[in-house]
Amino acid sequence: MPHQQTSTRSTWALVLGYALSSLGDELCIITLMLRAERETGSGWLVSGVLVAAFLPVVIAGPLLAPLADRVDRGTLIRTVSCAQAVAAAALIPFSTPVAVLALTALVATGTSVVTPAMLALVPSMFGEQEAARGYGRLEAARNAGSIAGPALAGLLLIAGDGALALAADAVSFLVIAACAPTSRDPQGTPAPGRDERWLTSVKAGAAAVGTDTALRACLISLILAVLFSTIANTALVFYSRDHLSGGAAAYGWLTTAQALGSFAMASKLLQPLLRLGHTRLLLAATVVLGGTRLLMGWLPLIAVALTACVISGACVTAQNLALRDLVRARVPADRRGRAFASVGSTLTSANIAGTAAGGPLATVFGAVNALLISGAGTVASAGAVIPLQRAESRDITRSEQTHAVMDSAGHSSVR
User: Fold this and answer.
1) If you average pLDDT over residues 162-174, what whole number do you get?
2) Which of 24, 50, 89, 136 has the fewest CB neighbours in a 10 Å radius?
3) What share of the chain is helix, strand, coil (3-state, %, to 5)?
4) Residue 404: predicted pLDDT
5) Topology of domain 198-410, per CATH?
6) 3-state SS of 205-216?
7) What percent of the chain has pLDDT over 90?
8) Angle ∠(295,314,375) on CA atoms, nearest 5
């Protein structure tokens, strides 16, 4: 019984750490962007903060990912989080553009190491059979942090000039370090591959995803889906202003609706839906996500848009969690850290590209047409997993038949 209680505390500590990571990211980015605009008035520096916050996930994440498969993951999370706390605290006195960009990139580089390590710990902490539930809890925690972060940043910025918010960010990293698991286990302390050359080890992480037929097809489909669906992220700003007559308020409602849908999927809906199978869920979520974009383009009404955003938030989360659990199911434990980093880097790149394209598309073709392009492209991207979905359907049917036969045999033996 004591062991169960310790295990429960450890899993909830990991969830708390994941929530604080998201909250801290929001605190840091919002505070630095507003401080840059107030002190320099430079749009380039504001954009530079965003680039410094996201580019390390794309570049540094895969290059440093072998750490998550060579070093005890709990130790890695504690060490990197403490270093991030120092970097975040250094942002308080150092406000020159070069220092801000360098320290922001350093904090983001740490996150690109910690996040794959946390994801790779889920199967060993929740159990392989309950890993999907664990990923759902982490995603729900991330959503909570993403909602609470901007609100807390606003309150702290009212109370001070940004130093208080950055200090809170530094403290959040120390709490994450305290939340990291202290016990070592076979999956938390990977052994294979530690003698590989570093570049070979980096390539092995990408190969773990790229050489698996199911993972490769699902990742290609999701890359295309993210590329097209995130066009709507920027287009919604113009859509709210030009077609919903609500301006900033309408955009805020739509963003909140997406967050609510995402939270509902992560906290309540994922487990029963995963019984459909990974590829079937990914296919359904992608098609429905594209449909919500098309619906908003065809019927520019606030009620329709709010409903579509709730559904789209749920679909995006279903896509991400289905892929994470598929990585867990098909990648050996000693390569999962690198696999998660590789997947995260690729999807973040697609997210950046799609979001960047949304503004020009909405400006040139109009917000409605940008949403229609987003929806049509998202629906089309589902084609990459249709052959896999058919194969998985046959596998699920055979598995259910086998279980039925075994259950029948078991009941007969009891009689």
Assistant:
1) 92
2) 50
3) 90, 0, 10
4) 39
5) Growth Hormone; Chain: A; (1.20.1250)
6) HHHHHHCCHHHH
7) 40
8) 30
Residues 6 or more apart whose CB falls under 8 angstroms from that of 321 comprise: 132, 135, 136, 139, 265, 266, 270
Biggest CA pair distance of the chain: 81
Cα–Cα distance between 148 and 59 in angstroms, integer? 28
Please give the residue that has the higher pLDDT: either 409 or 265: 265
127 to 1, 122, 186, 242: CA distances (angstroms): 17, 7, 12, 49
pLDDT for the residue numbered 40: 76
CATH number of 1-187: 1.20.1250.20
**What is the DSSP secondary structure assignment for residue 373, as one 8-state letter?**
H
* pLDDT value at residue 34: 83
Structure tokens at 212: 């698996």
pLDDT at 188: 45
Domain ranges of the chain: 1-187, 198-410
Q: Establish how many alpha carbons lie within 13 A of residue 21's alpha carbon, considering only the half-sphere containing its beta carbon.
A: 34
Asked if 27 and 167 count as a contact pair (C-beta separation under 8 A), the reply is no
Q: What is the mean pLDDT of residues 45-70?
A: 88
Q: How far is 67 from 117, CA to CA, in rounded Å?
A: 9
Q: Do domains 1-187 and 198-410 have the same CATH topology?
A: yes
Structure tokens at 265: 């999927």
Name 384's Cβ contacts closer than 8 Å, sequence gap at least 6.
217, 218, 220, 221, 224
Q: What is the pLDDT of residues 132-141, one digit of tens each?
A: 888 999 999 9
